[in-house]
Amino acid sequence: MRRAVTISLPGDLTRLVDRTSRTEGVTRSDIVREALRRYFAQREFQRLRRKLMPEAESRGILTDEDVFRHVS
After folding, report:
1. Residue 72: is its pLDDT beyond 90?
2. Most buried pick, 21, 50, 63, 69, via CB within 10 A?
3. What pTM value is reported for the model?
4. What is the pLDDT of residue 28?
5. Domain range for residue 25?
6. How far is C-alpha 66 from the chain's CA centre?
């Protein structure tokens, strides 16, 4: 079920959204939906990272390269 949500944006951000909407041929809503999806995905990633870091560090996994070595 879709619900309308009203937000207010500063003028410069509104202009950027409108310009991007015209240039990319997508709606304002599409842009805001994608931005919110990315925002919440990033927050979830950060939450999981904080939760898993102590275990990873105890196993000597400290960098992205360490992760790559363990999963490849």
Report:
1. no
2. 21
3. 0.75
4. 96
5. 11-71
6. 24
